[in-house]
Write a structure and sequence with these properties.
alpha/beta, Metallo-beta-lactamase, Chain A, 2 domains, six-stranded mixed sheet, 21% strand
Amino acid sequence: MNDQEPRPALTFLGGAGTVTGSKFLVDTGQVRVLVECGLFQGMRELRRRNWEPFPLPARNIDAVVLTHAHLDHTGYLPLLAKNGFTGTVYCSEATRELCEILLPDSGHLQEEEALYANKRGYSKHSPALPLYTRDDAERCLAQLRPVDYDAELALGQGLKLRLLPSGHILGSAFVSLKSEHLSILFSGDLGRPHDLVMSPPTRIEAADYLIVESTYGNRLHPPETSEDLARICGRHSEEIEEILGFVYGDEVIHRNNMVLL
């Protein structure tokens, strides 16, 4: 890094001290980028953090970048947009498509939870309100812009974005932010190098700063083979067929331990 270049400020707004609510604010002094926009999930004490005021006005954030579609990385986005964020949300094409399913469903669940709280009277608020609604979630989807893997995108003021496959779920990505003399890499959730379904994570050659998810640190995954996958699917084939048949109806065909959609 060039000593004359101002160092960006990195603020952890979630995903620290807990495994949910991932939000990392990168402020170069000219551009503010929020990497991840996740909901806090789990215990009540964590979920209450979703209701706390955001540390800065949402309108002051220039862009959001997502590593993947899971709600602990994306589920706060409808509220951020509701509270004034009007910028672009960058993600892979598959992440956008998954968000089009997950975020409205999250809004629906928020509404259902508020209705149930009002019905049972266990909330200290009267009436209990949803964190955001399905309509809020559907409105924010227009702000999602897909980015191709390994394509370089200028975010402004010399800051550039690249997404690289991370092997976690469909559409998941490392997020690389680079200026002329500095690079920061966010891992998001990582996949396995020898997964039977997903491609392995991209081999990262260099970064000045590395922000890594460490949820599964200090342990090793056992090796898996195609025989292991076939054995698991065979053991639970009836349950799998019943679930998929309920969801997809006649589009599901079961043949010799294989499910065709």
